[in-house]
């Protein structure tokens, strides 16, 4: 399946939530049928994270919003947070990197710019449950396989791993949301901010399990790289440097391609990278019922 290019503009730092995600989660009226791998690409800004961009002052922590009527409840309640069997842990690992121009810096951070690049990773996860770099050498947005391997593997010579739990809020309508227009989870940690207002150079990986139920949706808006795997198959490809971009994954439409069946449990593997100072947007909304009672840290 050939990925489609973004077709609609969205303001940087302002997620465009499809109306149905804010109500019943049943249909997306009037939306484009073009596809970003399997997830539906809902649009991107036309410019990348430029080298000349400056961060927003103030350093606000990521906030949370209630996506449905009736108020929110804490992570772990029924609906997107899971069910009554346990309190699922949306816990992952942030890895901090130095900018390439500094001593000990990584060549993929603060070094590239562009409008995104699909196909950086292979369509299936590797045996270690990590993305597999799909090229023998570099691309317009990456240096090569050895450098990419360090993104999601501990290497004390170039990265510092730090645990981060996503504070997903779940509404009475059963939708979970985490919204971060200023997503800086490791300010003043790891290698530090390197003279900037925030710590911009990091990756984040999150592993979960969920019960596939009809109508399941997963929405993400952010920059830079993002790859989402369902049942070990690439479902959303938003790789490369780019301004905040949105994608929607509707499970029912692509169940066959993902090899999933209603009523069964599957892994969801999530890989993110913030590689250029300027902005850091990270918003996700989902109706998935997560089932992992304990954190899955890899």
UniProtKB/TrEMBL annotation:
Residues 43-86 are annotated as: Disordered. InterPro entries: Fibro_Slime, PA14/GLEYA, Prespore-cell_inducing_factor. Residues 43-64 have a biased composition (Low complexity). GO terms for cellular component: extracellular region. PROSITE patterns: PA14, PROKAR_LIPOPROTEIN. Residues 142-298 form the PA14 domain. Residues 68-81 have a biased composition (Gly residues). This is PA14 domain-containing protein. It comes from Sorangium cellulosum (strain So ce56) (Polyangium cellulosum (strain So ce56)).
């Amino acid at each position: 399946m050939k990925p489609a290019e973004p077709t609609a503009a969205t303001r940087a730092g302002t997620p465009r939530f499809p109306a149905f995600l804010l109500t019943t989660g049943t249909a997306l009226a009037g939306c484009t049928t073009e596809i970003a791998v399997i997830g539906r690409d809902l649009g991107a800004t036309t410019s990348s994270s430029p080298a000349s961009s400056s961060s927003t002052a103030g350093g606000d922590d990521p906030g949370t919003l209630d996506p449905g009527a009736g108020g929110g409840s804490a992570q772990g309640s029924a609906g997107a947070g899971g069910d009554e069997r346990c309190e699922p842990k949306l816990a992952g690992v942030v890895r901090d990197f130095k900018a390439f121009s500094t001593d000990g810096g990584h060549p993929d951070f603060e070094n590239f710019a562009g409008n995104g690049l699909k196909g950086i990773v292979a369509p299936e996860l590797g045996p270690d449950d990590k993305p597999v770099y799909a090229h023998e050498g570099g691309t317009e947005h990456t240096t090569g396989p050895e450098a990419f391997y360090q993104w999601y593997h501990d290497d004390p010579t170039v990265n510092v791993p730090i645990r981060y739990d996503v504070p997903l809020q779940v509404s009475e309508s059963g939708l979970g949301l985490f919204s971060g227009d200023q997503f800086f989870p490791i300010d003043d940690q790891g290698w530090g901010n390197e003279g900037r207002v925030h710590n911009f150079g990091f990756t984040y990986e999150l592993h979960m399990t969920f019960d596939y139920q009809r109508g399941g949706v997963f929405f993400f808006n952010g920059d830079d790289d993002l790859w989402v795997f369902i049942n070990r198959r690439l479902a959303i490809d938003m790789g490369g440097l780019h301004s905040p971009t949105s994608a929607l994954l509707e499970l029912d439409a692509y169940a066959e391609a993902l090899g999933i069946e209603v009523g069964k449990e599957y892994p969801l593997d999530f890989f993110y990278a913030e590689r250029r100072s300027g902005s850091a947007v990270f918003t996700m909304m989902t109706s998935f019922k997560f089932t992992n009672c304990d954190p899955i840290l890899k």
